[in-house]
């Protein structure tokens, strides 16, 4: 209760504004006003099957389209230094999931140490932090390592993308004992080529491991 009043007070003196339209937010709103929020197109509800990822269930929060608000949010998260956006997206993503799909451990898709130095953080880690805060499922950032940087994939065909990310990841640590279901977390799923590589690395070491994919956004088509 005390926290609630403190937040109200904070809001009166420092009104926060909608990240998109800059309208003043009411205390219950976070980042976006309710009007802008309606622009975000939810992926309802069950798992999506992605061709490259075969049997693996993928859960997504919003549809990703060119020039959409979702694209702006992801851009802000990756290039605008607004890492709290990742937390918010991860929390929202986790909030609507059925309990049966929740893993025992979450693994954010890593970026190379060099990229991390440039950006200051890994966006998927921030999505995972929100996911963790909502579900209590712990994240592990040491297990997967990215050893190869992949240049922007947007201009590449599906086959080129697959080649581009081949051998990009490795397992740096074994899974903790007793873990038989992990979740992989990423910001955008386009063809699934990147996530396919992560799955491949995990499957090679743990053929019976259950893997579920959770992404903040999924490209249409
Ligand atoms: Zn707004």
Task: Explain what you see.
The protein is of the alpha/beta class. It has two domains: 1-39, no CATH class; 42-219, Rossmann fold, CATH 3.40.50. It has eight helices and seven strands, in the order H-H-E-H-H-E-H-H-E-E-H-E-E-H-E. It has helices spanning 2-13, 34-37, 69-79, 84-95, 113-119, 123-135, 158-165, 193-205, and strands at 57-64, 105-108, 138-139, 144-146, 169-171, 181-189, 210-219. The strands form two sheets. It has a five-stranded parallel beta sheet with strand order 1-7-6-2-3, sandwiched between helices. Helix 4 (84-95) crosses helix 6 and helix 7 (158-165) packs across helix 8 (193-205). The chain is globular. The N and C termini lie far apart (46 Å). The model has no long low-confidence stretch (mean pLDDT 88). It binds zinc ion. The site of zinc ion has 8 residues, from helix 2.
